[in-house]
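Forwarding these from the shared drive since the link keeps breaking.
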Amino acid sequence: MVRSRSLVAMLVVALLSIASVSAQDAPLRITYVVNGVLGDKSFFDSGQRGMDMVMDEFDAEVNTVELGIDPANWETGLNDAMSDADSYDILIAGTFQMIDYLASRAHLYPDKVFFFYDAPMPYDNAEICVEACANVYSITYNQNEGSFLAGVYAAAMSMQEIDGMNPEVVLGAVGGQDIPVINDFIVGYEQGACLVSADAQVLVQYAGGWNDPAKGKEIALAMYEQGADLVFQIAGGTGVGVFEAAQEQERFAIGVDSDQASIILDTDPEQAERILTSMMKNVDNSLFRAVELYLNDELVLGAAEGLGIEEGGVGLAVNDIYTAATPQNVQDLIAAVQEAVIAGDIEVISAFGENAVTVGMGCAEMPETEFDVAAFLEAGM
């Protein structure tokens, strides 16, 4: 009988060991929830590229859930995805509209890990973040820093002798909605333009939505009519209309979130050449990085992490179109400005925080800096 019990005990240990090895060998399962649709050639597509990278590199399984463009479906759609807890190890969602939905339910699945991107969880708010969202890692992007580079670039290009550029520094920015994260883009863009020219004028208008290319085109056409040389689109799918307007008016545009020129280069090369660069919010790299940290047991849960120029979270797209269209002195200027921001020699303003600023503050109110833009611009004359 003793031998029999020993044998049973050995069998139990062996089975547990096999189960443990099997669990370790099982592929990582991820649910990626999009409160919109793929195909925006921008923000959500960038996140999907990150998921593709994860599948290729880590042999993970990714289930992408598109909730559609109607906000009325977002809360129930996310709840459904979260409640299907047997199908994922990590669930990823993003954008500020989804904060409360995820924060209020993450504690119901304590053995799961959640990534939230493009906004921080309100960890200190017990009414929203139940149990301090202890199993949620959130990513923010210093879009003001990347947009600062875009403003420097747009203003510097506006001063070049290039067909389609006017003598005055007049720029445009089309936002999807008048919300803090979009205004954080815009104030950085305005500051960058003012660094180059104290007389810079930035035209700003909000489209009121993210999937209306016709509205984006209408706004951009009006801005070009008012003398804008470049229009920065910060409006998701609505921004596709900005590119159409730039091509039609033989002016220029700046994309957002992804390298939007490269995305359409094969299908519409003429339009792509009008997108001189894009302000990259590297959602793809940030999600891949988060998964890698998770697999290495280095991910810090219950906290937010901000990714800026220094961390590769934001920056300008450098491709063949950028290189061919951008004079060397402007390329050198952008490189130097990046280093100055990283070194802390230039402090980029923001629409967030204790020192938050508002859109349209004007060049006269911008922080002073000793950075010598003129030396770069004069080098090209």
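-- next protein --
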Amino acid sequence: MSFPRFGALAAVLCMSLAAEGPVPALDPAGLSQILTSKKWTVIEFGGPTCVPCVKMQPVLADIQWAFGTQAQIRNFYVTEHPKEAQAHKIMVMPTQVIFDPSGKEVARHIGYWPKDEFLSALGKAGLK
């Protein structure tokens, strides 16, 4: 007996759960390393208890899932590493910064960033 619907349902459920999973946080060494990885990178500079930062997590997870290995989406907690955040001129949490594969900042947004606007900005930056 075959269950083709079950297979499709399981795939959708797994994709949904993966999209809602946590986005990893970096320490200062990890931040330096990821910016030299030759991949598109989005860093959300925020904090684990910042309400808009927490609200952004499903959006970031969805974007990570959508781009897969083309891009790296990570958190960097300003509250834990203020010196490094200051080096990136972070003044408000959350601030999302898009870096191209050379590690150059190509876009920045402050506050909650709706998914459709975020995806549009990624496209304009060159990530498709």
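Residues 6-20 have pLDDT under 50 and may be disordered. The helical segments are 4-19, 28-34, 51-67, 82-87, 115-125.

- D.
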